[in-house]
Amino acid sequence: xxxxxxxxxxxxxxxxxxxxxxxxxxxxxxxxxxxxxxxxxxxxxxxxxxxxxxxxxxxxxxxxxxxxxxxxxxxxxxxxxxxxxxxxxxxxxxxxxxxxxxxxxx
Length: 106
Description:
With 106 residues, the protein is α+β, with helices and mostly antiparallel strands. The protein has a single domain (10-93), classed as 2-Layer Sandwich (Beta-Lactamase). It has helices at residues 9-13, 35-40, 44-47, 58-72, and strands spanning 21-23, 29-32, 78-80, 83-85, 89-91, 94-96. The strands form three sheets. A two-stranded antiparallel ribbon has the order 1-2. A two-stranded antiparallel ribbon has the order 3-6. A two-stranded antiparallel sheet has the order 4-5. A hairpin with a 3-residue loop joins strand 4 (83-85) and strand 5. The two termini are 23 Å apart. The relative contact order is 0.14.
């Protein structure tokens, strides 16, 4: 069946095995993919609205804050990061970031 409208990107993102989430300028989560629940233990609805630093281990917060400048200037840092996940265990995903401030959908 052919559709005249494109499938929303979030539908494709939810098929990925990797966790994908977006934060605003205040580090509040504005989008979280379905895989976030499997990896972090939080449903996407639980993550949206939270400050990402509230879910991160304290010892990784400063390095992450420092990397924001790299992301905003176009560099894409890749580093391990500790997250306090549910139920009360730590996950250490490899994290990267990209600024989408000027991104436009084709």
